[in-house]
Each structure stands twice: as structure tokens, then as C-alpha cells.
Write the C-alpha cells for this entry.
Amino acid sequence: MSERTATVTRETAETTIDLTLAVDGSGQADVDTGIGFFDHMLTSFAKHGLFDLEVDCDGDLEVDDHHTVEDVAIVLGAAFDEALGDRSGIVRFADRRVPLDEAVAGVVVDVSGRPVFRFDGEFSQERVGGMTSHMAKHFLRSLATNAGLTLHAEVDGENAHHEIEALFKATTRTLDDATRLDERREGAPSTKGQL
């Protein structure tokens, strides 16, 4: 059983979220946000990053999808931050490019403790199912901010479903690479001695 786990609960006037993350998992997911396409993306995130993820979110979907997507990203970022602790022994840096049919996404990450987010690209359609396409970008920004990641992402394609899914897959593969433990390393991977 992995020690790099976290359970985070967040309740606001807009959402109530219970989330459990195991960094060293097997890709199991149990996700219910009320947004089918977002559930699909989070399940894919768990599967391809080999993270075990449980998410239960009751959000104000009668307003729109914004608070649900944003708040899940906030809680997921906080769970990564908690589960990784002082980041001792992690690889820290990683990058991946992932295609999905005509779309391709690239993500570069530094698990630095310094939240920075850059994004290049546009989505070809305004919505995919119940999720507004630009919320994929906002998800990544909120994840990076709350996990303490420097995250640069880019996407190109012709179909927003493919573009967003490629982004989620590239992000999770990059996070899996960067958060892996390197048996050669002791302590935080920084000349400062901490992250």
C-alpha cells in the first residue's frame, strides 16, 4: 500500500467534494461529478497516470460547469501536494507529447512548489457534452496552482473531444513520470535542499 496518499474534502456554497488520491496506484477510478465528459477525463487521468482516484462532487450544475471543474482541480491539486509531502526522492521534471487521432498535446512539468501555468492552443468546439471546452485549460491552471507545479501545456487539433483528452493524458503521463521515486536520490531534488 502506497504511503503517498491523501484524502481531501472541500465544502463551499457552490460544491461539496470528497477526493482520495493514491500516487502509487494501479489506475483505478471511481468518479462522479455530474458531468459525463469530465468524469471520462478524470477516469482517463487515473488510468493513464496509474493513479488511484476517487472523486465525489455535488456541484451547482444548475448554474454551469465552472465551479465543479474548478473545485475538483483545486482539491486534486491539494491532494497531490499533500501526498507528495516534501517531494523527497522524486524525479521532479518531465515532459510528454500525446496524440489522439488528429490532435496532439504536449505538457512539461516541474514539481517545484512554485505554481506557474502557461498554455498555448485553442479548442475547436465550444463544448464537449456537459463541459465547456475552455474549462480544460482552467482545470490545468487550478491543478498547477494547488499542487505547486510549473506546468506548460499546448494543444492542436480539429476536434475538442480529442484535444481535451490528449491534454488530460499528456498531463497525467507527465505527472506520473515527474512524481516517480528515483532510488538514487536522497531528499528533495534541489540544490536548495528543499522544494
Observations:
- Helices lie at 36-49, 66-84, 134-147, 160-179.
- Residues 160-179 form the longest helix (20 residues).
